[in-house]
Amino acid sequence: MELWKKTLSSLRDRVEPYDYKHWIAPVSCERVDEGRKEIVLGVPDDSHGRWLAEHFVGAIKSALRDLTQSDFAVSFSAPEASDLVAAPPPAPLKLVSGVREPEAPVASVGVPGLIDRYRFDSFVDGPTNQFAMSAARGVGDHPGTLYNPLFIFGGVGLGKTHLLHAIGHEVHGKNPRARVRYVTSEQFVNDLIASIQKNEMNAFRARYRDTCDVLLIDDIQFIAGKDRTQEEFFHMFNTLHSLHKQIVLTCDQLPQSIPDMEDRLTSRLQWGLIADIKPPGFETRVAILRRRAEVDGVDLPDDVAMTVARHITRNVRELEGALMRVVAMAKLTGRPLDVEMTHQALGNIIGKTLERIAPDTIMKAVCAEYKVSPSELKGPRRHRNITVPRQIAMYLVRELTDESLPQIGAFFGGRDHSTVINSLKRVEALRDANPEIRAQIDRVRRSLRD
Ligand code: ADP
Ligand code: MG
After folding, report:
1. Is 397 near ligand 1, meaning CB less than 6 Å away?
2. From the CA of 357, how far away is ligand 1's center (Å)?
3. What is the pTM of this model?
4. 158 CB within 6 A, ligand 1
5. Which CATH code of 3.30.160.20, 3.40.30.10, 1.10.3720.10, 1.10.8.60 fits the domain covering 282-354?
6. Which residue among 151, 362, 432, 447 has its CA within the 20 to 30 Å range from the CA of 176?
């Protein structure tokens, strides 16, 4: 138990404060066996356990490794009568093992290490990730022939690992005999060090080079500054590449920006296709939340999705985390899943990320873009030169504020709420059909941000 206390304080430095508070702090240590290197962590409910298994088990393990110099098997245990999620028949102690473990029950039976949920059909594409997604699909369909290597880069929590796993699932699904190997670069480094120590380098090379058709390495930036690893990786890369075996890498930056990376390696990382992922825009964020809710069987009201999407903008992992939090709170308190609840659940984040934008400010920004006056927008005229800006102003007020539909209608000259709904639909259609309108909307959004 002492061990878990130390692990907690080391985790505090490793994860974002928000994640620490909401995901790590509520975890207790149920059992620890230092001899067998096993630890069982108590979690409030199954979904919390699954979330930890998907997102934090790596951090937990590496904190344990630093403290004990050994690799612990980590599992999570939820109380039996957890009614927060539809649970399978009760077992005395429910274990959700770390999903990255090959033997874990929730991991795919196909390729070891791949998270089952990370597939192309659960990935929501939008303008900021479409290119990476198409490239990944191409590679999944035709490994080793299109782009080699495929290098996917972008900030944290934007779906790089998701796409990498999706490629693995796809290749395996189409050809179960293809030998797909997935590792994080951290695992790769550890494996290399252990192989050197045990004098088992031949087996190491066989694993990654000779018995591998598709090599997926996550977060390649971690091999920077590690000379021996770079050396091994360099030779492995050359062999695989010359045999037309597919290599896919993810990274938090461009090859040429990774510090302490050997030049000859940097240049190889640039041989194939480089695809970036940027934070998704508002519509994509809403779509991701809807998809996630669908997968989890949650009935998610539109205004809740929009409120969450409006406030959590940087990172999809945080977006999903926020949704989970709102859903959990609604279930725990038995109150409806609505905007009110969302504000309560996300209180401190919402207060911090966004000062409120007044509907009036939005309206003025739209007027400036379209060269019309506020009184025209609020007035009765139905000429296209006025109606389009009016509808766009309603749409942006809906997106950027918490005003309800009737409040928006009232603000724009006493229109009723069905008029507002029609306006929102119309703008969505215009926006999808007309790039110029989309650019205008974006311009107004940007002008409101600075
Ligand atoms: P990264 O590896 O870039 O840090 P991940 O692939 O781990 O990010 O993604 C973080 C979380 O966000 C995962 O749960 C993933 O499924 C989800 N996610 C990211 N992008 C998307 C997307 N476009 N559609 C659906 N889920 C996404
Ligand atoms: Mg990742």
Report:
1. no
2. 29
3. 0.67
4. yes
5. 1.10.8.60
6. 151
